[in-house]
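Lab manual, section 2.4: Encoding a predicted structure.

Procedure: take the sequence of the chain (329 residues), apply the prediction step described in section 2.3, and record the output as structure tokens. A sample record is shown.
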Amino acid sequence: MLSTIQNQMVMKCVAYQNGVSIGEVTVEDISEVINQDNTFVWLGLREANSDLLNQIQTEFCLHELAVEDARSAHQRPKLEEYGESLFIVLHTAYLVDNHIEFGETHLFLGPKFLATIRHGGSSSHQKVRDRCESLPHQLSKGPGFALYAIMDFIVDNYVPVIEVLQARFDVIEADIFHHHPSRETMENLYALKRELLLLESAINPVIDICNQLMHAHNGVIPKDIRVYFRDIADHIKRIDQTIKGIREMLVAAMQVHLTFETVRQNEVVKRLAGWGAILAIPTMVFSWYGMNFKHMPELEWIFSYPLVLGTVAFCSLYLYWRLKRAQWL
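Recorded output:
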């Protein structure tokens, strides 16, 4: 039963010699295969449990601290060096039914191996593997090129996420300018800002990781592979500029939304004040004649009632016309 569970976690484990696949290998045979000349192993795992991690630690001679970090899916993006091997953590983002799912990919890189462990939301690396296998002259340079291919794949997946966030912002922006401000609009703005911050926190450390891979770690990153990581860094910088642009527009949209809400409230106050002024005329007149004074000469005049009503109506209509002309009503 335990073997079956572990097999479900192993996506693929293939050995490559001179850049050409020589077939799949079991986890138990990894240590023997990587001892062959010009050979490295590419292992892909998903949600690996402790027993499987302990097994690959033995096969690849990994440091216990790196393996301990790989057990948890709550690591920050980083690159750490342990002897001849590197431990890299990258945050992933991809779309599921137009909804953004975040995850993590942990990578162990050595001179003779590359092991990836996917946690949470992430896409299969099969397309990456197929692409690398179609370029044996590049794959012959070792696991460093496979590392570049996976990192490039993860970064490329940020692009459709950015496009969805941009489209979502455009819809919210249209709602702000064409409809009345609402609580739902403000909630959507804050939700969008939160996703932008999560994405930004995922991509920014990748630039530092690429810089380290370009200038250090000669044992696992050949010199002719480093230029590829510079390309990833440039790609990340362009994405980061796009995120910053959306975020600035988002802040402006929030300010415009609040301004529109203030203007709308002022319009409501003006209307209430206008109708209050109109109602003040009959209120004052009728309260005047509601006083219990015995001697009010006009009470005995036959035209006093229609005259008072007419005066109240005229004054109210005149005030309504003036307020309407001043756009208070």
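Check your result against the sample. DSSP finds eleven helices and seven strands in the chain.
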